[in-house]
Design brief:
Keywords: Hydrolase. The protein has 607 residues and is α+β, with helices and mostly antiparallel strands. 18% of the residues lie in helices and 34% in strands. Among the domains are: 137 residues, TolB, C-terminal domain (Neuraminidase), CATH 2.120.10.30; 260 residues, Alpha/Beta hydrolase fold, catalytic domain (Rossmann fold), CATH 3.40.50.1820.
Length: 607
């Protein structure tokens, strides 16, 4: 390991050279995100020209996501200020350079609901101006910029729009923590129940889209099944047709024809993504593309005539590679690597593993080992994912590469409560924060110690959001297992966490109570702050000042308690950040802190 090149943090966590490639609907222009004076902006150029020019000029947090509108004239993106998550919608005309703030509203959140190929100059938005808890539906005219409210929200969490751009579906929360899916026949019709979804299915069931004729709705649904299936539901009779399912894993995504609105295929996420294709018109494309690279295929964009695709391959041990795919000639054209410098460094594979928990569940995860060393008695970092109702997957993980490069085994675990493995596995995490969900992490450590891979005395725990909470739990509930802990934007007190949720989360509060708990004494018993006196290991905490999800107080109350008791800790707070560190200078500063902290307490290398 001593001879292995140290990968600079800038290469892993600084701005990518180019990322987020898309094509204009007419297939003539290529766009991507790239740094402009150190800030990510959108660049656009003619395909094949080899040059692109910036069309946005943000100087602050950078643009994270964007898309072409179907009018072939505009690029749209949402941005907030300093991580507040009060997103505004902006657009730019790449031909003229004219940029517009389309929702110039303070302390209001905008969400994009729908933009359809058949209505290239229109966008439907959700805006919580009238009631901060609820998003009303607004119609945006892209030509004039006119914004008008078309539907007052009576208490719904979300909306489903048909192919005629009419709001004909809605999601309503139930007092039990479940959800009701409602439909209506037209914009003036009465809402009626299509499907009652209990709390056990609420996280694993949801609408995908209406069929072209509007008589059916496609749903990803775990109702009457353990795993999430793709179903087609007749909205008049309620009859259900199962289109795709897997006995072990959830259906994770869909491929939709923009013209017919038919489902062309689905993805199922096992250890890696699997494509299940139903449409013979694209089957040959998928087969050919999967032969092009060992990475995970992602179809990131398709031209309006469907003749040109933009695809990316996510590799575990290399940069993300972008290609144009000409469907007529079945010809790929390589575009770029998202971080070409990675090709110069010794990256390691991401290896799936699984083990049996102490109560008999099969738990899956991924390991990344340091290169060129014997797999015996190594220090390790347990990297806990956020959510927690999410999962880690295979592919390029900059944190896994960083940890392995520094000499640690990087351990990622899809503990119970993670998504993707069926509702029984997800619901096994109900009311198990700091309990069985944490036991799964401990069992992963025991499994790897038992195999001789890792040194039980040199294991750190690290994570952000729920992962930050898990790191604090490791330090307070089981400090004898870990040598150190790093928490980024992690809750320390579940009572104050839930009490301080953003207003637009409050309609979902019953689901939180079902999943996490509702009794204040119970929530306190699962809060790291309640066990500060048990801390015997060093802790590093990072926080964004404007985080609307895990408020600044979550970090500061446990920091104050540790300070009062003289417990060793480091605390870094970033004034212009929210739930995570977006600005590259803040992100790099945080990773430098963690790099040195882990080296000091686990004995690995640091930059």
């Amino acid at each position: 390991m001593a001879d292995a090149t140290l990968i600079p943090l800038e290469v892993l966590f600084g701005n990518p050279e180019r990322v987020g490639a898309q094509i204009s609907p007419d297939g003539t222009r290529l766009s991507y995100l790239a740094p402009l004076d150190g800030v990510l902006n959108v660049f656009v150029g003619d395909i094949g020209a080899g040059t692109a020019q910036p069309v946005t000029h943000d100087t602050d947090r950078g643009i994270q996501n964007y898309f072409w509108t179907w009018d072939n004239r505009h690029l749209m993106y949402v941005m907030d200020k300093d991580g507040s998550e009060n997103f505004r919608l902006y657009d730019v005309d790449p031909s003229t350079g004219v940029e517009r703030d389309l929702t110039p509203l303070d302390d209001v959140q905008c969400r994009i609901i729908a933009h359809r190929k058949r209505f290239p100059n229109e966008v439907l938005l959700g805006i919580n101006k009238s009631n901060p808890q609820l998003h009303d539906v607004y119609h945006l005219d892209l030509t004039t910029g006119e914004l008008r409210k078309i539907l007052e929200n009576p208490g719904y969490l979300g909306w489903v729009v048909d192919t005629d751009l009419r709001v004909r579906g809605a999601l309503a929360p139930t007092p039990q923590g479940g959800m009701t899916i409602l439909v209506r026949d037209d914009e003036d019709g009465d809402w009626r129940v299509l499907l009652d979804v209990g709390p056990e299915d609420a996280e694993t069931t949801g609408p995908v889209s209406f069929s072209l004729d509007g008589t059916a709705m496609y749903l990803l649904s775990s109702v009457d099944s353990n795993t999430t299936r793709l179903v087609k539901m007749d909205i008049a009779s309620g009859a259900v047709e199962v289109i795709a399912e897997d006995p072990v894993y959830d259906v994770s995504g869909t491929i939709i024809d923009q013209d017919t609105r038919e489902i062309q295929g689905v993805t199922v996420y096992a250890d890696r993504v699997q494509y299940r294709i139903f449409d013979d018109r694209i089957r040959g494309d998928i087969d050919a593309l999967e032969q092009l690279s060992p990475g995970e295929l992602m179809i990131t964009d398709r031209s309006a005539d469907d003749g040109t695709w933009l695809v990316a391959f996510d590799n575990d041990a290399g940069p993300v590679k972008y290609y144009l795919w000409d469907r007529a000639s079945q010809t790929p054209t390589f575009l770029f690597d998202h971080r070409p410098e990675l090709n110069d460094y010794p990256l390691v594979p991401m290896e799936p593993f699984s083990f049996t928990s102490r109560d008999g569940l099969t738990v899956h995860g991924y390991l990344s080992f340091p290169p060129g060393v014997e797999r015996s008695g190594l220090p390790a970092v347990l990297n806990v994912h956020g959510g927690p109702w999410a999962r880690v997957g295979w592919g390029f993980d900059p944190e896994a590469q960083w940890l392995a490069n520094r000499g640690y085994v990087a351990v990622s675990v899809n503990f119970r409560g993670s998504s993707g493995y069926g509702k029984e596995f997800l619901n096994a995490g109900n009311r198990e924060w700091a309990a069985k969900m944490h036991d799964d992490l401990l069992d992963a450590v025991d499994n790897l110690v038992g195999k001789g891979y890792i040194d039980a005395k040199r294991v750190g725990i690290y994570g952000g959001s729920y992962g930050g909470y898990a790191a604090l739990v490791g330090a307070t509930f089981t400090p004898d297992v870990f040598a150190c802990a790093v928490s980024a934007v992690g809750p320390s007190n579940l009572n104050t966490l839930i009490a301080s949720f953003p207003e637009y989360w409050k309609p979902m509060i019953q689901l939180w109570h079902k999943r996490v708990g509702d009794d204040p004494d119970f929530l306190w018993s699962r809060s790291p702050l309640s066990r500060v006196d048990a801390i015997t290991i060093p802790i590093l905490i990072g926080q964004g000042e404007n985080d609307p999800r895990v408020k600044r107080a979550e970090s500061e109350q446990i920091v104050a308690a540790m300070t009062e008791r003289g417990i060793e800790h480091e605390y870094v707070m970033y004034e212009n950040e929210g739930h995570g560190f977006v600005k590259p200078e803040n992100r790099l500063d945080f990773y430098h802190h963690v790099d040195r902290f882990l080296a000091k307490h686990l004995g690995g290398r640091a930059e």
